[in-house]
C-alpha cells in the first residue's frame, strides 16, 4: 500500500513537471526561479518540507509549476487522510469520536475540492479565485483538526491532520508567489 501511494506521488509530481517545463511562460508576470529560491521566498519555516515536496519538479521553473506540485502533494495527502478516516470509522463506537471523525472526513472532501480548484486554476492561469480556494482549503483542514482536538491522544488522524496543515500552508505559500498574499 505504501509503495503504491509513493509511486502515485512520484507519478503526479512528474506529470506536473512534464505539463509545465522549466522556464515556461505559462502565466504572465510569474517569476522563474530555482526550487531553493522558491522555498526560501515562500516558506522559510517549512523549508525542508518544501525541498522534499519539490524534489521531483524541475530544478528551475516558473513559480506556477512549484505551486501546482505542492497543491497536488497536499491533495494526495488529503486523500490518504480520508482513506485513514474511512478505515477507522467502522471501528469507532457510536458517539462523539465517531461523529467528530465523520465531520472531519466531510471537511477533507471540501479541502480536496478546493485544492483541485487551485490546481486547475493554476494550470490554465485562471487565477481569479485561486487565493480564496487556498483560504477555503486551509479552513477546511483546520476545522477537521479543531474538531478532533478532544481526541488528539487517541486519534492517529489528528497527527495526519497536523501534517496536512503544513502541506496546505506550503501549497498556499508557494501559490502566493503566483497570486500574491
From TrEMBL:
Claim: Transferase is one of the keywords in the record: no
Signal peptide bounds: 1-26
Keyword tags: Signal
Domain of life: Eukaryota
InterPro entries: Invertase/methylesterase_inhib (IPR035513)
UniProt keyword annotation of Electron transport present: no
Gene3D superfamilies given in the database record: Invertase/pectin methylesterase inhibitor family protein
Full protein name: Pectinesterase inhibitor domain-containing protein
